[in-house]
Specification:
By secondary structure, the chain is α/β, with parallel strands linked by helices. Helix 5 packs across helix 6 and helix 7 runs antiparallel to helix 8. The longest helix is centred in the last third of the chain and has 15 residues. It contains eight helices and 13 strands. The chain has a single domain, classed as UDP-N-acetylmuramoyl-L-alanine:D-glutamate ligase (3-Layer(aba) Sandwich), CATH 3.40.1190.20. The chain is globular and about 50 Å long. It is 29% helix and 25% strand. It catalyses: D-ribose + ATP = D-ribose 5-phosphate + ADP + H(+). InterPro entries: PfkB_dom, Ribo/fructo_kinase, Ribokinase, Ribokinase-like. Pfam families: PfkB.
């Protein structure tokens, strides 16, 4: 089967800092690296390294051809990754000594994806495939409609969080993945707790505490603990979780088994410095 990902592609520029800068403060970085990132690209690489076939739908700018080549080199399908005029998405990442981060995004070509390109890409989708999208591109509603029209299972990683964007697609989702902060923001915006959302599977990631699963069909609430590790860099951990989760489901694992696999992958990921380029393989997990 195939995982279809409408997702961002960013150049990640990571600056290691002794602490997060305060307003008006100038800091000297203790390190720097540039690599492939973006929530979409991270998820595509994670699902591919977990052993699934992934087709990435999106766009890069004139300065982003190296990112398209790198994705293809990692085994991600890039036939539907358009090359457009203008800049590719950029992410400026501050990473402190505790492994926490702050991120500033430039959307660039990620918000220039045409609905026609989305529809054309999904012509190759088949019932039983899985689709996923995030909030770093345009076209979410068009993608959700097209995916459901083809009978695919639809997952949504609701980050960066936007209450209106989530509300617009809630009734079309099969799987919703959020972190603890995003879950609170969605509840504040809609008045609905996770267990009351009109989505069959709601997963709330809790960082070091693991993941809480809300099976809204059966009413079951399940906590799945995370492996204990010492974090170096938390950037991309949630994307790694989502990519591995969907790959596990694509390969026939139960939801609980897929969550367990995804948490192992995320745990390994936070022990590494970087994003898409250092996502672990299934063998390493």
């Amino acid at each position: 089967m195939t995982v279809w990902n409408l997702g961002s592609v960013n150049a990640d520029m990571v600056f290691r800092v002794p602490h997060m800068p305060a307003p008006g403060e100038t800091l000297s970085a203790t390190g720097y690296q540039k690599g492939l990132g973006g929530k979409g690209a991270n998820m595509s690489v994670a699902a591919t390294r977990a052993g699934s076939h992934v087709e990435h739908i999106g766009a890069v700018g004139e300065d982003g051809l190296w990112m398209k080549e790198r994705l293809a080199g990692y085994g991600v399908g890039t036939t539907h990754l358009a090359e457009l005029p203008g800049p590719t998405g950029q992410a400026i990442i501050y990473l402190d000594a505790e492994g926490e981060n702050q991120i500033v995004l430039l959307a660039g070509s990620n918000t220039e994806i045409s609905e026609a390109a989305i529809a054309s890409a999904l012509e190759g989708a088949r019932a039983g495939d899985i689709a996923v999208f995030q909030n770093e591109t345009n076209g979410q509603q068009a993608f959700a409609r097209a995916v459901k029209a083809r009978g695919l299972r639809l997952a949504y990683a609701a980050a960066p969080f936007d209450a209106a964007a989530v509300a617009a697609v809630l009734d079309q989702l099969d799987i919703l993945v959020m972190n603890e902060v995003e879950a609170r923001q969605l509840q504040d915006a809609t008045g609905l707790a996770p267990e009351a959302l009109p989505v069959a599977e709601v997963l709330v990631t809790l960082g070091a505490k693991g993941c809480r699963r809300f099976d809204t069909v059966s009413g079951q609430v399940q906590d799945v603990p995370a492996p204990k590790v010492t974090p170096v860099d938390t950037t991309g951990a949630g994307d790694t979780f989502t990519g591995y989760l969907l790959a596990g489901l694509d390969q026939g694992l139960s939801m609980e088994e897929a969550i367990t696999l995804a948490q192992k992958a995320a745990a390994v990921m936070v022990t590494r410095l970087g994003t898409a380029d250092v996502i672990p393989t299934r063998a390493e997990i």
